Structure formats: C-alpha cells, structure tokens
Amino acid sequence: MDTYSTASHSEASAAGAGAAIVASVSTRNRAAVLALIGALIAAQATAIAATPLPRQSSPLLWATIDVCDPAGQPSTIGIRGSMPGTGDRDQRMYMQFVLEYRSPSGHWHYRGGGGESPLVAVGKGSAVSRQAGWDFTLAPSSSETYKLRGVVIFEWRLRGITIAQDVRATRSGHVTATGSDPTGYSAATCTIRRTASGRS
Length: 200
Hints:
By secondary structure, the chain is an alpha+beta fold. The chain folds into two domains: 1-50; 62-199, Immunoglobulin-like (Sandwich). The chain has one helix at residues 14-50; strands at residues 62-68, 76-84, 91-102, 108-110, 120-124, 129-137, 144-158, 161-169, 190-195, 198-199. The chain starts with 13 loop residues before the first helix and ends with a strand.
C-alpha cells in the first residue's frame, strides 16, 4: 500500500521528516488494517447469516450405545452419534462424547476421570449425514455395578465459528454404520457389573 507524508524540508529537519513519515505510515497502516478487519467481519457476518442451519428434528440426529461390556471388550462402553449435514461444504461438523452414570437417587452425573472425549471432526456440512463413535473402558473394580449412558454434543462450524449446537442423550433403536458389538447393537443405557471373580 502506498503511504505519504506531508512533511517537507522547509517545515522540518531530516530527523523530523523521518519521524513524520514513520508516524504517517503507522497511522495509515493502522487505518487500513482496521478497515480490512471491518470488511472481514462484515463478510463473515453475511456468510453466517446466509448459511443453512441443521434441522433439530432430523431423524439423522441421534446418539446411542453400540458397545456394552461384550465378552471381547470387557468393561467397555461405546457411544455413537449421527448428525445431519446442511448442504454447505464450507461448514465443518464435530462431535464430543461424554459418559454419565446414574446415582442411587436416579439422577445422571458426569463421570469424570476420563469420561469425556476430545472434540472429534467428522466431516463437511455437504454430507447428508456423518457418524462417529468413542469407546470408554472402565477401570477394573473388585465389586461394583455401573449404570451408564452417553451424551453426545454436536457442533456445526463455519470458518471456526460455531453456528449451531445440539446435545442428545443415548437412545435405543438406531442403525449404526460400523463399530457395534454385537453387530446391530443399540441401547439407551449400559449396565456393567463386576464381582470379585470378574465379569458377572
């Protein structure tokens, strides 16, 4: 970008002229940067306002348990989610998987201790839908019963900004693309029992 100074030899010394030029460059560049930032914010706001949003009522939006302490994966619970795309290839979709346990009072609580996955990128918004899953393995216990469920947090982002979010607890009756054990398994909760001798 061209920058100019109004200082002249007759109005300032060489040092003064140099200072004036630097001040002019700094001021004009700052104004240009602010103008560019303003334009980018306006463009981003326009893009976000125009972008399609997911349907919260979509049958493609769900969470289920697809693994529950099978013989080949003891103490493991698998949570799987499905989320619909919006048709916008510039959007990115993410899921996060959270493990909860039911207390004796019947309330659900965040389990903690590794009961939360990182945010998982699952694909572009141009997809009809995407599925992803996460397995949690419980630490061995000499004698304890766990009543568990999963919660999936869904996010749709455009240029790094979250434009929509949804949360679903696990439910039964969903068809998983892969990873279920046994094949086709889908449940709302998972009970893992341990005795002194191991699996019950």
